[in-house]
Amino acid sequence: GESVGLHLPTLSVQEGDNSIINCAYSNSASDYFIWYKQESGKGPQFIIDIRSNMDKRQGQRVTVLLNKTVKHLSLQIAATQPGDSAVYFCAENLKGSARQLTFGSGTQLTVLP
Amino acid sequence: DAMVIQNPRYQVTQFGKPVTLSCSQTLNHNVMYWYQQKSSQAPKLLFHYYDKDFNNEADTPDNFQSRRPNTSFCFLDIRSPGLGDAAMYLCATSRDPDPYEQYFGPGTRLTVT
Predict the structure, then answer these.
(1) Whole-number average pLDDT of chain A
(2) Phi-psi region of A99 (alpha: psi -120 to 50; beta: other; left: phi over 0)
(3) A88 CB near a chain B CB, below 8 Å?
(4) CB–CB of B41 and A105 under 8 A?
(5) Strand duo B64-67 + B10-13: pairing
(6) Mean pLDDT over residues B62-72, rounded?
């Protein structure tokens, strides 16, 4: 079946560096994507979203890039801080399957001092 | 201020003993979801309510049931918990229609002994 997947299960970065977390999706019918951050023992927290009619969206210290040609989504975190250490999930919504998100497998981001 | 509240945060039950997890929300969202999340895995949707309309995922075991007595509350009932049901259970809400962003609660960690 079609799924949302992540290229790297773990990512370690130095504090202050930029982080890039990647996500591959295979369903071209997906039209909405979200990045969630999940800290240990907590529920997922919304970071940023993007619709399929966009290729870039920026938030505070975060940028999401969408490449529909290769079905690739990335989350860029600028000046990574220790508080950014968490598992990051991408999730997609299939056009026509309102109200449902399919989550990818997650990437563990560790920020090194 | 908490928007999606889950109680209890930690629940221990015995093998085969029914257990109920609760979720409440202050967002007045019309959609409520229950997810199961096992260690190092993505959240897996069990079912969701759109208002009073119950939508079960095809692969959700019959052992899992849900009730939504009003807009604010939703319950997850596990009729006969097995060891494999030990997991984090996440409740989420969203406002339908669009956008599809889901707001998650902190989760209930279920242990089955």
Answers:
(1) 88
(2) left
(3) no
(4) yes
(5) unpaired
(6) 97
